[in-house]
Structure formats: structure tokens, C-alpha cells
Amino acid sequence: MKISPDGEIVDFYRSVREAGRKNHMSYQTILDRISEKVKSLYAPDGYVYCKDNARAINKAVRRIELDRKEECGVDFIPAPEVVFDF
Predict the structure, then answer these.
(1) Are the C-beta atoms of residues 13 and 23 closer than 8 Å to each other?
(2) Are 38 and 26 in contact (CB under 8 A)?
């Protein structure tokens, strides 16, 4: 599965080899990203690749969010819930 740097799903692939062919990369490059054998989250084309299951997708999106938070240097905290009583 191919995920954009914004965390949106871009494309699905039946195999790692198909993903490599369609994105002009070695299948091993994508396989290394999926199995986290390299430190870099993003593949050379700027996208994130993961397996097609909910757990892997959630993990990839969380890693993207963490990477974006580290880039801007701001730790966002959720706003408190406000209840208006009329």
C-alpha cells in the first residue's frame, strides 16, 4: 500500500514486486521500508509503503504524524472540551 506524506492512501498493490515496477524502484527498496530494516520512513519517491492491513496502516500513519511533529518542533496538545450551558 502506498501512503502520501499527508497520511492519505494513494494506491494498492497485490505484491511488493508490482509496487516496485509501478513506482520505478527495486522491490527490495519497498520491502526494506515495509519490514523497517532502514531508518528512513519515506522511500526515495517520497511516499510511505506498508502492508495492506489495519494495524500496519495505523502504524504507518502514526509514524508520519510523529515525523511531521518533529519537523515543526511543536507538540500539539488537545484543546479542553468546552460545554456551554444556556
Answers:
(1) no
(2) no
For residue 61, being part of any structural domain is answered with yes
pLDDT digits (tens, 9 = 90+) for 61-76: 999 888 887 666 666 6
Number of domains in the chain: 1
pLDDT tens across 15-39, in order? Answer: 999 999 999 999 999 999 999 899 8
pTM above 0.85, yes or no: no
Q: What is the spatial distance between Cα 61 and Cα 51, in angstroms, rounded to a whole number?
A: 12
Residue 13 placed within a domain? yes
Range of the domain at 30: 2-72
